[in-house]
Amino acid sequence: MPESLFRNRVLKSLSPEDFALLRPSLHRVELDIKAQLEIAHQPIRNGYFPERGVASVVATMTGGRQCEVGII
Questions:
Q1: Going by C-beta distance under 8 Å and a sequence separation of 6 or more, which residues neighbour residue 22?
Q2: What are phi and psi of 10, to 5 degrees?
Q3: 27 lies in which domain range?
Q4: What is the value of pTM for the model shown?
Q5: Residues 6+ away with beta carbon under 8 Å from 57
Q6: In the prediction, which pLDDT does 25 show?
Q7: Is the model's pLDDT at 4 over the cut of 70?
């Protein structure tokens, strides 16, 4: 897929040379609502370039309470 087919602004802003370096590793995925993208204190296995929707960053506090601390 050429970069013109992506709706993510970060991917669209890359130079053709930089995009060509990423392209072999890019795969479109559909994520379920409330899908957990990363787990604290675990290695990050994937990077995400959202094209639509909302992602949030949730902090878990002592005692298990959760608080949304960021929106993407």
A1: 11, 14
A2: -65, -50
A3: 3-71
A4: 0.73
A5: 68, 69, 70, 71, 72
A6: 93
A7: no
Distance (Å, whole) CA 57 – CA 28: 21
- Residue for token digits 């479109």? 28
Contact 55/72 with Cβ under 8 angstroms? yes
Q: Which two tokens stand for residue 29?
A: 């995925």
- Separation CA 72–CA 54 (nearest Å): 6
Tokens of 28: 């479109």
- How many domains, the chain? 1
Residue in 52, 55, 51 with CA at minimum distance from that of residue 69: 55
Element (H, E) at 10: helix 9-13
Please report, rounded to a whole number, the percentage of residues in the chain having pLDDT higher than 90: 74
| Residue 19 φ/ψ, nearest 5 degrees | -60, -40
d(CA 59, CA 15) in angstroms, rounded, equals: 35
